[in-house]
Design brief:
With 381 residues, the protein is α/β, with parallel strands linked by helices. 35% of the residues lie in helices and 16% in strands. The protein contains 12 helices and 12 strands. A 7-stranded mixed sheet has the order 2-8-7-6-5-3-4, sandwiched between helices. Strands 9-12-11 form a 3-stranded antiparallel sheet, with helices on one face. The longest helix is centred in the C-terminal third of the chain and has 24 residues. The chain is globular and about 55 Å long. The two termini are 33 Å apart. Pyridoxal-5'-phosphate binds next to helix 3.
Length: 381
């Protein structure tokens, strides 16, 4: 069952389906239904995360440890100005070459996109027909079910345990054409059980999309095996460990025959010229810098978990740069924290998990101020 299918309009009571905060909080009124709009979309609302400014934003898992210096240097140059009137490279060949070297695969095993969201959308459309099925673990990144729905693909989920274990045979039980797995998983943080992932890849009849948005923090990846395994597509992004979410650059690692299909589905010119230049610089020159920052984030994640335990909470195990923790009344608690100028991401009534907060690991001063705001919010919310 699709998570998004039952997403209510603003103000409506939500049912038992997990709902990404941005689709519920501060959403616009229900879209008007006219003879020109698709009636089956009448329950959808635009993604509107809360926008009131905060001093400390730990709500979106982008790295809080700075932006790669060579990306900044490219954006500060004005040598690019004459290029702005021209189209960029159709499929971002220079960026693909830099990403291939970073990951350690051939350039024909890489496709780029406008964020990894674009990779998910393009690959779902490329590898499943309308009416076919996507299977995923719940709770997970809500955009997977959203892009399935936008491409006419049915979806259903099976539960994911907090330790990253799941039943691979139950996941495949309805013969899905597509499988979406996210490891480490957003929003719970767990790395998925490697044996269960392997069984899914070995037994799935179609394409398994493995979202590794947080791979740099986990230190493990299946990207190197993807080019030789036509049933596996690894999706990665520069938005999280590279702290370049504003550039909108994501990429896929897969067998060359899949890459061509993704690029057909995606279309040309999806990465802007400036984004391509800045991303290429970061991936070429700042890999060691990013690895150092990712290690800092991982150390801070453990201190964050300790700080949450000191407040009497029970953080879940995480292999990413964030921690998920059960907090009854998470929506209210997050709102009270926002009044104290600290943003974290609340989720209401996740099946099997209840109300949770997802909090990005960050430098110690920010973390201390977040914990102080959380302590006050827990006392008053
Ligand atoms: C943040 C995130 C993405 C989206 O990344 P973009 O490249 O910014 O589109 C994809 N998957 C997961 C699991 C994420 O957490």
């Amino acid at each position: 069952m699709s998570e998004m299918k039952n997403a209510p309009a603003a103000g409506a009571e939500r049912g038992s389906e997990p709902l990404h905060e941005g689709f519920a909080v501060g959403a616009v009124a229900a879209p008007t239904r006219t003879s020109r709009t698709r009636p089956e979309w009448s329950d959808l609302v635009l993604y509107r995360p809360p926008q009131s400014p905060v001093t400390i934003n730990l709500s979106d898992n982008t790295s809080r440890f700075g932006v790669p210096p060579s990306a900044l240097a490219v954006l500060r140059e004005d040598a690019l100005a004459p290029e702005l009137a021209r189209y960029p490279d159709a499929y971002a060949a220079p960026l693909k070459a830099a990403l291939a070297a970073y990951v350690g695969v051939g350039v024909d095993a890489i496709a780029t996109g406008c964020g990894s969201d674009d990779i998910l959308d393009s690959s779902f459309r490329a590898f499943a027909r309308p009416g076919e099925r996507l299977a995923y673990l719940a709770p997970t990144f809500p955009m997977a079910a959203y892009f399935a729905r936008m491409n006419g693909i049915e979806s259903y989920s099976v539960p994911l345990a907090a330790d990253g274990t799941f039943d691979p045979d139950a996941l495949l039980a309805r013969d899905p054409q597509l499988v979406y797995l996210c490891s480490p998983n957003n929003p719970t943080g767990a790395a998925l059980d490697p044996g269960a992932i392997e069984r899914v890849i070995a037994r799935a009849r179609g394409v398994v999309v493995l979202d590794e948005a947080y791979a740099e923090f986990a230190g493990t990846s299946r990207a190197l095996e993807a080019p030789a395994r036509p049933g596996l597509l690894v999706a990665r992004t520069l938005s999280k460990a590279f702290a370049l979410a504003g550039l909108r650059v994501g990429y896929a690692i897969a067998a060359p025959e899949l890459i061509t299909q993704i690029e057909l589905s995606r279309g040309p010119f999806k990465v802007g010229a400036l984004a391509e230049r800045a991303a290429t610089a970061a991936v070429t020159h700042d890999v060691a810098w990013v690895r150092e920052k990712a290690a800092l984030a991982v150390a801070q994640r453990e201190r964050l978990a300790d700080g949450l335990r000191a407040l009497g909470l029970a953080p879940l195990p995480s292999a990413a740069n964030f921690v998920c923790v059960a907090v009854p009344g998470a929506m209210r608690v997050a709102a009270a924290m926002r009044e104290r100028s600290v943003a974290v991401r609340p989720f209401a009534a996740l099946p099997g998990y209840g109300d949770v907060l997802r909090i990005t690991a960050s430098p110690e001063d920010e973390q201390q101020r977040m914990l102080a705001a959380l302590k006050e919010a827990l006392a008053c919310a």
